[in-house]
Automatic annotation (TrEMBL):
<keyword id="KW-0560">Oxidoreductase</keyword>
<dbReference type="GO" id="GO:0050660">
    <property type="term" value="F:flavin adenine dinucleotide binding"/>
</dbReference>
<dbReference type="InterPro" id="IPR050982">
    <property type="entry name" value="Auxin_biosynth/cation_transpt"/>
</dbReference>
<dbReference type="InterPro" id="IPR036188">
    <property type="entry name" value="FAD/NAD-bd_sf"/>
</dbReference>
<dbReference type="Pfam" id="PF13738">
    <property type="entry name" value="Pyr_redox_3"/>
</dbReference>
<protein>
    <submittedName>
        <fullName>NAD(P)/FAD-dependent oxidoreductase</fullName>
    </submittedName>
</protein>
<dbReference type="GO" id="GO:0004497">
    <property type="term" value="F:monooxygenase activity"/>
</dbReference>
Length: 354
């Protein structure tokens, strides 16, 4: 049976920071490609972040390949959500990448020696290789918790949090540590009573250290360096988090036992009434579109060796976390990961055509 007609050499699924970084190196290699993005405009997951979201490393360190992010207007040098979105939009325009949107990819299948990418509108495209760069933002994770469905108040994930004004005057439970938990706590605590629940005590980095150290630590962990297992902290003290500390609200307690209809029960059996819960409990890989290939594990991951699927050699993944490259879900990590794997992808395309 003849192979289907090839529409593109490479299809990138996802037009956020990871997709743009991969596009940069494909363009340099003079490989034909297209980007299929399900957003209505450039900006990727940053378009859906909360209003006060801050990047936790300087603009000069948080740039995609080829063009530095302009310095932030903020006094501490950490770019705002809107500044990052503006940078990503201008980056896409600067390089005039072939981005098609909005195009939601439903599935990817193998047909003979090509891959077929099927869109929500029923149309499809064929290619030699797929770079899946859909990230995690569309797959927020909320853990099972005793009595969670009994609670009558508001429950949202950090992926759907927008502004503190929505919770003004309320008592809000923030569940989950890390930078999202700390930043949302800092934001909410200006207008609401907050209770911060973390599994273990949060570890804050010294004020003078920014997100660069987290990237280097993640890189060391991926390399297997023993010293990388030393915990130095993981929460960056951006200005709003420092302000929360100064107000005396940057305090976390250990997990509660269960929900009630209007609150929670703690381990000592005391109860606290609350109005809302914000789950800052992370995300899972958005890889449902890859399930027809038979490569997706129960946890949503795909087994890879250096970004390439073990089971489907035409599939490459980036931007999902350390398992697809050191800090590959960050701006700086997206560029470094693309610089490493795109040349291997290009070499494979050349080898296959000979």
């Amino acid at each position: 049976m003849d192979s289907p007609k090839i529409d593109h050499d490479v299809i990138i699924i996802g037009g956020g920071q990871t997709g743009l970084a991969a596009a940069y190196y494909l363009r340099r290699a003079e490989v034909e490609f297209t980007i299929l993005d399900d957003g209505n405009e450039p900006g990727g997951a940053w378009l859906h972040g909360w209003d006060s979201l801050r990047l936790f490393s300087p603009a000069s360190f948080s740039s995609l390949p080829g063009w530095l992010m302009p310095p932030s207007r903020e006094s501490d040098g950490y770019p705002t959500r809107d500044e990052v979105i503006s940078y990503l939009q201008r980056y896409e325009e600067r390089y005039k990448f072939p981005v098609e949107r909005p195009h939601k990819v439903e599935s990817v299948t193998r047909e003979s020696d090509v891959l077929r990418v099927i869109l929500a509108d029923g149309s499809s495209r064929t290619c030699h290789a797929v770079i899946s760069a859909t990230g995690t933002w569309s797959k927020p994770f909320v853990p099972d918790y005793l009595g969670k469905d009994l609670f009558s108040g508001v429950q949202i994930h950090s992926a759907h949090y927008e502004t503190a004004d929505d919770f003004a005057g309320q008592r809000v439970l923030i569940v989950g540590g890390g930078n999202s938990g700390a930043q949302i706590l800092a934001d909410l605590s200006t207008v609401a009573e907050t209770i911060w629940v973390t599994l273990t005590p949060p570890v804050f980095l010294p004020d003078e250290i920014d997100g660069r150290v987290l990237f280097e630590n993640a890189s060391a962990r991926v390399r297997g360096d023993v010293d990388a297992n030393t915990t130095i902290g993981d929460i960056i003290m951006v200005a709003p988090v420092k302000a929360a500390r100064d107000r005396g609200v940057l305090n976390a307690v250990r997990p509660f036992k269960q929900f009630t209809e209007d609150g929670v029960v703690w381990a000592d059996q005391t109860e606290t009434k609350i109005d809302a819960v914000i789950w800052c409990t992370g995300f899972r890989p958005a890889t449902d579109h890859l399930k027809p290939l038979g490569v997706v594990e129960p946890n949503g991951r795909v087994q890879v060796i250096e970004q390439r699927s073990i089971k489907e050699p035409g599939l490459w993944l980036a931007g999902y976390g350390n398992w697809t490259g050191a800090a590959s879900a960050t701006l700086i990590g997206a560029g470094r990961t693309a610089r490493e794997f795109v040349p291997r992808l290009v070499a494979d395309l050349i080898g296959s055509s000979e």
